Amino acid sequence: MNQPGSRRLRRYHIARLIWQAHLPAVAHGRIYADVTREVAAFDASMAALKAGDPARPMFLPRDAAIQRQFADLQKRWSQDMKQALAALIASPDANARDACVVA
User: Fold this and answer.
1) Which residues pair with 99 in a beta bridge?
2) Nearest to 50 by CA among 40, 35, 62, 65
3) Is it the case that residue 94 has pLDDT exceeding 60?
4) Most buried residue among 23, 62, 93, 96 by CB atoms closer than 10 A?
5) How many domains does the chain contain in total?
């Protein structure tokens, strides 16, 4: 599997799920479960890329600049984006979700 492509598709899928949560006839519990599953899969994909897989082969280059960029990406994902997603899907108020999306 193409890990960078997989992560890109997961981001699009998460965004679509968040958008669907605004629709009146949507089962919000299902959306929450789907987003939670996608976030976990994104985490697993990041871990696999960091650890590498000699069978594929898949690994991050040992270049210091690339390692720093990946570490920054992991930090931003963990500290900012995952928390924002959790807030979005936890909010029962559509206006509060809209405010998170705009911010």
Assistant:
1) none
2) 62
3) no
4) 96
5) 1
**Quick one: pLDDT at residue 97?**
52
Identify the burial level of 10 via C-beta atoms within 10 angstroms of its C-beta, where 0-12 means exposed, 13-18 middle and 19 or more buried: middle
CB 68 within 8 A of CB 30: no
Query: Whole domain around residue 82: which residue ranges?
Result: 3-102
Mean pLDDT calculated for residue range 76-86: 85
What string of DSSP letters covers the chain?
--HHHHHHHHHHHHHHHHHHTTSTT--HHHHHHHHHHHHHHHHHHHHHHHH-BTTTTB-----HHHHHHHHHHHHHIIIIIHHHHHHHHH---HHHHHHHHH-
How far is residue 34's CA from residue 58's CA, in Å, rounded to a whole number? Answer: 27
Asked if 100 and 87 touch (Cβ cutoff 8 Å), the reply is yes
